[in-house]
Structure formats: C-alpha cells, structure tokens
Amino acid sequence: MRTRFQQQMEELREKLLRMGGLAELAVDRACQAYTNRDLHSCQLVLENESLINAAEREIDELAFDILATQQPAAVDLRFILAVTKINADLERVGDQAVNIAERVMDMIELPAVELPVDIARMATAVSAMVRRSLESFVEGKAELAQAVLEMDHVVDRMRDEAFIVLVRTMNEQPQSTQQALDALLVARNLERVADHATNISEDVIFWVLGADVRHHAQTAVIARPESTGT
User: Fold this and answer.
1) Which of 28, 71, 137, 161 is the one with CA 20 to 30 A from 12?
2) Kindly report the CA angle at 217 between 162 and 18, in degrees rounded to 5?
3) How far apart are alpha carbons 176 and 112 in whole angstroms?
4) pTM for this one?
5) How far is CA 22 from CA 62, 91, 96, 130, in A?
6) Per-residue pLDDT tens for 108-150?
7) Residue 229 and residue 227: Cα distance in Å, rounded?
8) CATH number for the domain running over 2-219
9) How far apart, in whole angstroms, are the C-alpha atoms of residue 220 and residue 11?
10) Residue 217 pLDDT
11) Is 114 left (phi over 0), alpha (psi -120 to 50) or beta?
12) What parts of the chain have a pLDDT lower than 50?
C-alpha cells in the first residue's frame, strides 16, 4: 500500500508540473502576442485553454482519490492540499493569459500607437515570477518561494505606474483611448498573474514548512525544509 501511495504522489507531482508548463507557456505566448502584435500567438493561447482545463480536472480527481483512499498525514497531507490549491491558481493563470490574448486581438484591429508604458518589462517580471514559483515547487525550497513573494511588490508598482500614465494618455490623446484602455487591461491581467504566482509560492511555503504566510508574507521565517517523502 505504501508503494502504491508513493506512486500516486509522484504521479500527482508530475501532473502538476505538466499543468505548470502549460500555464507558463500560455503567459509567455500572450506576452509575445502583445509585444509583436501577433494574432497567431493569441490563437494558440485560446486553443490551449482546453488543455489547461482538462489538466486541472485530472489533478483534482487524483488528489481527491489519494485523500479518500490513503489517509495521508503530516507533510504528505500538506503536499496534497498545496497541490490542489496550486492547481486552481494555475488554471486561473491560464484564464488571465486568455484575457490578455483577447485584448491583444482587439488592439491588432486598431491602428498601432506609441504608448508611454513598458508593458514588455512588466511581462518579463511576471513571467519570471511564474517560473520561479514553479521552480520552488519542483525543488521544494521555501527560500525560492519567498523570493517570489518579494517580487510581487515590484509588479504592483509597475501596475500602478501603468495606470497613471495610461489614464493620462486617454485624457491627453482621446484618439488613442481604446489602445490605452486595452494596454491598461493587459497590465491588470499581468498583475493578476503575479498574484497567482504569489499564491503558489505561499502554498509551497505551507507545504515545506507548515507555515501559513498569507496576508503577512513579509514576516515569513524561512527555515530548513522537512523531508517531503515524495
């Protein structure tokens, strides 16, 4: 029974990693679509949403089966609970990527204009947060997860700056209002992706350390992680 349990736990881990890869790819494609005004990248994001949704269902089904049949305890139980929460956040990352792709598709239909905001820089920071949050899960390292939490403040500042300059642009250049509004919505969705990456990192810390750092992440104490047994 223990061997079967370990096999299921490894399968759960592998499924979540594949899910993470799909979500990360969706964000990267959406960001490329914005930078390059690339309709094909937008379409790929929309087409791959069904893969992410199917992966979410598979992970939840396996996690619930393990909980019902194996009665895991301690760190194994925390791992499974963290996986279910990370799974939900990854699905929402995919949703945000779809939102970005839809905004880009709208922008492509409009004349290109120069906007005084560096969305590409924000996209790079957000993509790094998603990647590092997944790395913290793969390696089971709370230190990596904590670094992602600290990056969230940087992205929040970028979002605030984007809001200020884009609202000013809409006031000063009414002919560019729709393009500025689309860019503002892209920035908002990128900030939401960063929030989900933060949630994932908090769940990694919960799994590894048994510490709940939600709402007060800056006070998290990173200690030597326990053995995960997975």
Assistant:
1) 28
2) 75
3) 9
4) 0.91
5) 18, 9, 13, 11
6) 999 999 999 999 999 999 999 999 999 999 999 999 999 999 9
7) 6
8) 1.20.58.220
9) 30
10) 45
11) beta
12) 217-221, 223-230
Q: Which residues contact 110 (CB under 8 A, 6 or more apart)?
A: 178, 179, 182
pLDDT of amino acid 3: 86
Q: Are 115 and 166 in contact (CB under 8 A)?
A: yes
Q: For 61, list phi and psi in degrees, rounded to 5.
A: -60, -45
The token pair that represents 2 in the structure block: 């223990």
Count of residues for the chain? 230
What whole-number distance in Å separates Cα of residue 16 and Cα of residue 84?
Answer: 9
> What whole-number distance in Å separates Cα of residue 2 and Cα of residue 14?
18
Tokens of 105: 């598709």
SS3 readout for the chain: CHHHHHHHHHHHHHHHHHHHHHHHHHHHHHHHHHHHCCHHHHHHHHHHHHHHHHHHHHHHHHHHHHHHHHCCCHHHHHHHHHHHHHHHHHHHHHHHHHHHHHHHHHHHCCCCCCCCCCHHHHHHHHHHHHHHHHHHHHHCCHHHHHHHHHHHHHHHHHHHHHHHHHHHHHHHCHHHHHHHHHHHHHHHHHHHHHHHHHHHHHHHHHHHHCCCCCCCHHHCCCCCCCCCCC
**CB proximity list for 162: less than 8 A, separation 6 or greater:** 117, 119, 122, 183, 184, 187
Q: Which residues contact 220 (CB under 8 A, 6 or more apart)?
A: 142, 146, 149, 205, 211, 213
